[in-house]
Design goal:
36% of the residues lie in helices and 12% in strands. By secondary structure, it is an alpha/beta fold. Among the domains are: 7-148, no CATH class; 171-323, P-loop containing nucleotide triphosphate hydrolases (Rossmann fold, 3-Layer(aba) Sandwich), CATH 3.40.50; 329-405, no CATH class; 431-505, no CATH class; 613-768, Leucine-rich repeat, LRR (right-handed beta-alpha superhelix), CATH 3.80.10.10; 999-1135, no CATH class. The strands form 4 sheets. It has a 13-stranded parallel β-sheet with strand order 19-20-21-22-23-24-25-26-27-28-29-30-31, with no helix packed on it. It is globular.
Length: 1135
């Protein structure tokens, strides 16, 4: 059943009629009277529209009326867009913003002719609309308050607690998890609440029934109550139901106070279980009132809630919700088989079993679908009947036998009208495809589905809220998330995709050029799957003149024919004059079709991941264009000057355009631009005109490695919220006055050069969130600057990096090559710095770091190049209770870090290149520490002070010891299991360490030096019985002779050795086959002897050229093959 949702479209039309520019244009064109009449007629319809949409499910004639209304509303929208485009074009010319090129290409038609044309169109549409408005009276439509609207559709039957467990499959694990929570007495809350969340028909109620009837649960609770809630969360009704369930008798009193007291008397000092089944209400106040009445029972009382909404779960739950997954295909088959065949029936009709298993795949793990389809097939015994169902779409099944869509429709019916439109639109994506959230939101924006209520909220943010809403209602499935927890991709369950296609009707479609499917004339939004030549797209599109969205789904087989491509695309786009959104991502093209610039209504243009090198100059003719996506166009070298004519452009995405080195100055004319993304481009500088973009809210420059300067007048960009310059390490300074950007929340990098007028104190006025990396702190000469930065008040900052450049403290001729910070040269450099006289510099540095105290909410802190002797009090006194990651790098004078023992929330600790540190604090007593990296050249022993007592490092999973040249001893701690959770161990360049403290039974990944006696002895003793991956560092040529394994002494000798190896290769392989063992380290024989017990699946060799690997691999291959034949291991050698 295709439901008609017209209210969101009419709201969009109303907004356009109120547009100031359009009204001025109406006056100048003499059509203002017709526009006012149009607005009046729409208003009379809008008043009763909510009632019509709610009643259309049961009244077919009303649905037809809505369809006619929506068709006219589309036409109104089209003509208003046409008028608005002409108005904007004229206004742009009058202001002189339009370039001469575009002025030539887009001349305004004769005013009189255009006036007559637009007047006729508006009048004709207005008359059609008045005719439709007149028909509304025969339906007796009423005005409704939006929040009181309930779509008139079949409601779900009331549930009870009884269940036949023999009819349930695949829910044992879910049952056990919920049961464990219910009988657990360690919960200290007044009332423990757990929500079972999932889409309709997934089995939430079934799991609750299984738990409710479990004997352990029934014995644990003194009172058991089951209440069916549905969408009417009426406190009085629910209270009466609970009372009657507990007492077992009807309760006649209606006064709320008496009911509350009666309920309290019944449950007081009793441990109870209450199941609230099928909760929809997201009203916290109502739940809080009910919860208050339930408090006062015995400790351990629990509530189970079943819901489709994550928001309900977050409102009501006291613990994380239990998200119900779909059943396996095997379990779905068992459900289907029992209903379709009866007992043993499948054995009698084997010809239907194979078809039945294909039908079961339609279920997507939803048990309701398996049961409904099984019941549908029970009395169909003909193979042709089964094949017909197999080929049918879910929504085309017989209405009187189809329980699936009505169950899912409940979720749809609870959506507000704008979300109904957003959900139905998603049916244009092929089934099972992951949908990029940001792209989906931009398409919604282009179609007008997303509107800002106050006009100032960023539309992408509003759209992402819509995505979150559909996710919380289980209508989307969560896919990939970014590091900030923002959902990057979503999916639709197959059955929900079927639902979307059902409600969208013929407005949306998925066409396949390979299957010769055709997009109908009534279709407004469609995708087109192309697997062959792009010219094959013509046939499906030849009648699709009313399309508003065309979304090409380019497959790997999509090709082009140069001589025909332009003609076909020209024909396609010349017919589709109403397109709002055109998605051509990954289409095989080197130039944008010029015909696209004739699409006056176009708001969204996606040319991402194509081979285009530039845009045509006439791109500026697209006056309605709001979103231009050119991301990952790796051949794009420049934008035309006419890009400045795109006056309505809001989003310009140039992410990953690796050949792009500059922007035209005219980009500063795009006054409405809100989002500009240049991440991963080769941009060197930004045009100064960029500072004129007063509406720009997001400027992303992540990983622009060549960018060395920002526009000087950025202080004028008062709307800027996100200035993402992460990893722009060539930036030499910040623009002056950046502290005046009061809206700025994202600024991951702040560079001080000591010369520019931008000082550290500029940070003081900014309310930053996320991460902040302050570089160039050696240029801060007064602590007052650090204090004015006011980091202590930035409570939304979760990651902070503070960096001093050690090169600033080095005499000329002693450079620090930071690219080798893990090598010997860096070690020598840092040790030399440690011996320097620091009195003058250190005092200032210590004061600066002291006054850079962050807010207590900080989770990640990195300090690099600090030359003070002591760390600030705020770190030593544990003023950072939530600090999870701490990194101290090249802090050349730090000797004692005993107070780190107090940072009990630490999960990751890195102490790298601290040459003055000779002993470690009791890090073993940090209860949550999972990763520990040490690079401490002066430490000689990891002993008792390191462990801090028995049961050390209870949570440690990764340990790395590198460049610890003086480390000699590493004894085991007495008592308890040694490093019980350690799974990854790295010991590199610790030449004096001769023995490991213990075996490592849980280590699965190991990284060590190849020529280290420690490695040999550890394998000989079987110290790593469960090793899965071995990485060998610093492989060297030579035999067991120590002299041959020494570090290279002469670069020339190295060159000669390499030449000698090349000559051997030219002469043949005999020398290698006979003498190759002389070039191998002594490790292979030990590895081979221990390989079967290691159960290793991979080995990584690092440190020498490819000819070494060929020798090494050749010596192992025969033995490895022998082992593989004798065991189940599958060894892989990786370079």
């Amino acid at each position: 059943m295709a439901e008609v949702v017209a209210s969101s479209l009419l709201r969009l039309v109303f907004d356009k009629l109120g547009n100031k520019i359009l009204k001025e244009f109406g006056l100048s064109m003499g059509v203002d009277k017709e526009l006012r009449k149009l607005e009046s007629t729409l208003s009379t319809i809008h008043d009763v529209l909510e009632d019509a949409e709610a009643r259309q499910v049961k009244e077919k004639a009303l649905r037809g009326w809505l369809r006619k209304l929506k068709d006219v509303a589309y036409d109104v929208d089209d003509v208003l867009d046409e008028a608005a485009a002409k108005a904007a074009k004229r206004r742009s010319e009058n202001k002189g913003h339009m370039t001469e090129k575009v002025r030539q290409l887009s001349s305004i038609p004769n005013s009189f002719l255009f006036q007559s044309k637009i007047a006729r169109k508006i009048k004709k549409i207005r008359e059609r609309l008045e005719e439709i408005a007149g028909e509304r009276t025969k339906f007796h439509l009423q005005e409704r308050v939006a929040e009181n609207i309930r779509t008139e559709t079949a409601v779900r039957e009331e549930t009870g607690s009884l269940i036949d467990e023999s009819q349930v499959y695949g829910r044992e694990e879910d049952k056990e998890k919920i049961t464990d929570f219910l009988i657990d007495m360690s919960d200290e809350s007044d009332l423990g609440v757990i929500a079972i969340v999932g889409l309709g028909g997934l089995g939430k109620t079934t799991v609750a029934q299984l738990v409710y009837n479990d004997q352990r649960v029934r014995k644990h609770f003194e009172k058991m109550m089951w209440v069916y809630v549905s969408d009417d969360f009426d406190i009085k009704r629910l209270t009466r139901s609970i009372i009657e369930t507990v007492s077992g008798s009807e309760f006649s009193l209606t006064e709320m106070d008496l009911m509350q007291h009666e309920l309290r008397n019944l449950i007081e000092d009793k441990r109870f279980l209450l199941v609230l089944d099928d909760v929809w209400s997201e009203n916290y106040e109502k739940w809080d009132r009910l919860r208050t009445m339930l408090i006062g029972s015995a400790r351990g009382s629990k509530v189970v809630v079943t819901t489709r909404s994550e928001r309900v779960a977050s409102i009501m739950g006291t613990v994380a919700p239990h998200f119900l997954s779909g059943l396996s295909e095997d379990d779905c088959w068992l459900l289907f088989e029992k209903r379709a065949f009866g007992l043993g029936g499948s054995e009698k009709t084997p010809n239907l079993v194979a078809i039945g298993k294909e039908i079961v795949k339609k279920c997507g793990g939803v048990p309701l679908a398996a049961k409904a389809l099984g019941s549908l097939m029970r009395f169909r015994r003909g193979e042709s009947q089964w094949l017909a169902i197999k080929e049918s779409e879910i929504w085309n099944l017989p209405n009187d036998e189809n329980e699936i869509l009505p169950a899912l429709m409940l979720s749809y019916n609870h959506l507000p009208s704008h979300l109904k439109q957003c959900f139905a639109y998603c049916s244009i994506f092929p089934r099972g495809e992951e949908i990029r959230s940001r792209e989906l939101v931009q398409l919604w924006i282009a179609e007008g589905f997303v509107q800002s209520s106050n006009g100032s909220t960023y539309l992408e943010d509003v759209g992402l809220q819509c995505v979150d809403e559909l996710l919380s209602r289980s209508l989307f499935q969560c896919g990939q998330k970014d590091t900030d927890g923002v959902v990057r991709q979503v999916k639709m369950h197959d059955l929900l995709h079927d639902l979307a296609r059902s409600v969208a009707g013929d407005e949306c479609s998925v066409a396949d050029a390979g299957n010769k499917s055709v997009i109908s004339q009534s279709c407004r939004y469609s995708s087109l799957v192309c697997r062959g030549p792009i010219n094959s797209a013509w046939e499906p599109l030849k009648d699709a003149e009313r399309l508003r969205t065309l979304y090409f789904v380019a497959s790997r087989g999509m090709t082009k024919e140069e001589d025909k491509e332009d003609d076909v695309l020209q024909a396609i786009f010349s017919k589709m004059k109403l397109l709002r959104a055109l998605h051509l991502s990954q289409c095989p093209m080197k130039a944008m079709p010029v015909s696209v610039t004739k699409l006056e209504h176009l708001r969204y243009l996606n040319l991402s991941q194509t081979d285009i090198e530039t845009l045509p100059p006439c791109i500026g003719a697209l006056q309605n264009l709001q979103i231009l996506d050119l991301s990952c166009c790796k051949q794009l070298r420049a934008l035309p000057e006419t890009v400045g004519d795109l006056q309505n452009l809001q989003i310009l995405d140039l992410l990953g355009c690796k050949q792009l080195r500059a922007l035209p100055e005219t980009v500063g004319y795009v006054r409405n631009l809100q989002n500009l993304d240049l991440s991963f481009s080769q941009i060197r500088t930004l045009p100064e005109s960029l500072s004129s973009l007063l509406n720009l809210q997001s400027l992303s420059l992540r990983y622009c490695y060549f960018l060395h300067r920002l526009p000087g007048n950025m202080k004028n960009m008062r709307s800027l919220i996100h200035l993402d310059i992460y990893h722009c390490f060539e930036l030499v300074c910040m623009p002056p006055g950046i502290g005046q950007l009061s809206q700025l929340r994202t600024l991951p990098l702040f560079v001080l050069d000591g010369k520019s007028s931008c000082r550290l104190s500029e940070l003081g006025r900014l309310n930053l969130a996320g991460e902040l990396d302050i570089r160039g702190l050696e240029n801060v000469s007064e602590a007052i600057e650090a204090r004015k930065a006011n980091l202590k008040e930035k409570q939304s900052l979760h990651s902070l990096r503070l960096s001093w450049d050690l090169n600033a403290y080095v005499k000329p001729g002693q450079p620090c090559d930071e690219t080798e910070n893990e090598g010997e040269s860096m070690k020598e450099f840092v040790e030399a710095l440690a011996a320097k006289d620091w009195d003058a510099d250190a005092d200032v540095v210590e004061d600066v770091l002291r006054d850079l105290q962050p807010h207590e909410n900080l989770k990640v802190l990195e300090i690099e190049g600090y030359v003070g002797k002591t760390l600030p009090w705020w770190l030593m006194e544990s003023s950072l209770p939530y600090l999870a990651e701490l990194s101290l790098t090249s802090c050349v004078r730090c000797e004692h870090l005993s107070a780190l023992e107090q940072l009990h929330s630490l999960r990751v600790l890195k102490l790298l290149m601290l040459p003055a540190m000779k002993c470690l604090p009791a890090l073993g007593q940090l209860p949550d520490l999972k990763v520990l990296q040490l690079m401490l050249p002066a430490v000689k022993c990891l002993g008792s002070e390191f462990y801090g007592g028995e049961a050390a490092f209870p949570a440690l999973e990764e340990l790395a010891l590198s460049l610890m040249s003086d480390l000699e001893e590493w004894p085991a701690v007495g008592g308890g299991e040694f490093l019980p959770r350690l799974s990854k161990l790295c010991i590199v360049e610790c030449p004096k360490l001769r023995a490991l403290p213990s075996d490592f039974p849980f280590v699965r990944e190991l990284e060590m030096d190849v020529d280290d006696e420690l490695l040999l002895s550890s394998f000989q003793s079987g110290a790593f019985p469960n090793l899965k991956h071995l990485s060998i560092q610093n492989c060297k040529y030579g035999n067991d002779n120590d002299d041959c394994n020494d570090d290279d002494e002469n670069d020339g000798d190295d060159g000669n050795d390499d030449d000698h190896n090349s000559d051997d290769n030219d002469d043949g392989d005999d020398n290698h086959n006979n003498d190759g063992k002389d070039y191998l380290p002594s490790i292979p024989k030990v590895l081979v002897d221990r390989m079967s017990s290691l159960e290793s699946r991979s080995m990584c060799i690092k440190g020498k050229p490819r000819d070494f690997y060929s020798l090494f691999f050749a010596s192992l291959r025969e033995e490895l093959l022998h082992l593989q034949n004798e065991s189940t291991s599958n060894f892989e050698l990786e370079e």
